[in-house]
Design a protein that fits this description.
Elements: E1 4-7, H1 11-22, E2 28-31, H2 42-54, E3 57-58, H3 62-68, E4 71-74, H4 81-88, E5 97-100, H5 106-117, E6 122-125, H6 132-135, E7 140-143, H7 148-155, E8 161-164, H8 171-200, H9 203-214, H10 219-250, H11 256-270, H12 273-276, H13 285-295
Parallel strand pairs: 1-2, 1-4, 2-3, 4-5, 5-6, 7-8
Helix pairs in contact: 1-2, 8-9, 10-11, 10-13
Length: about 300
Amino acid sequence: MVSLGFIGFGEAAYFLSEGLREEGLEKIFVFDVLLSARSKGQLYNQVIERVKKTGAVVRQSPAELADVADILVLAVPAQFTESAAGEFIPYLKAGQLLVDVTTAAPEVKKQLGEDCSSGKIMFADSPMLGPLIVDRHKVPIITCGSGAQRWHDEMIPFGMNIEVIEGSPGTATQIKLARSIFTKGFEALLVETFMFARKCGVESIVMDSIGKTLNKATFEQSANRYMASDLFHAARKAHEMNDAIDIMRSMGMTPMVGEGVVARMQYIADLDCGAKLKGIRPQSLREICAAWEDCGAI
């Protein structure tokens, strides 16, 4: 049976381990710098509690963890990705697999892939695309790199949801970050929209109205329609947004998202995309991307 070693035992490693243990994975090891810290504070106690709940076996050094794990999963905060990997890579042997599930930048993942390849160590850039608290080990993961297929093949039998994609290390993380622009932006948009609606006393009506509009089509259909419309009607929409922003300010609200929306729409309006496209409205994502390039938007 494959043995898994977690570098860092925070929320990501804990929820993955908890689910994998239930699926029958027996060999789960962990190294966390908090466990060797001299001051045993709240974070230390939290890690200890997680270790007890999952039955993971603690190793005292990078060398010890590398000695017992077939696959090492880098699960530290993004700002520590490079330094943590740097401590472990010297102890990894040819054929071992280092999996990076952190949110470090694509450039960092690319460099780690190169560092591993020089020692014939397999590497997988493997960002997670869903809520760990809800999905645990079944959280959607996309992965690329020299060790991506092995990561998939070893862990699918334990219920993990891993999709192998083409591309060098960093590609999977670029996909995650592009998704994050939408998911985090959508979250912020919802918050600002319904704060405003609540101030107006119409939150339930607005929820129902938006729901009816969005439920008429698939996400892809709606996305293409909105993006194509933006190419031709950005100026008018920016004017309408400014009116909404004025009302928000009069109610004592700060239109953080609204101001960004106006800036984005005004940028497209100033490019005069509608005229450059000669009134021909793109229909697909491919055509919309080509229109942005033709207009100088990207």
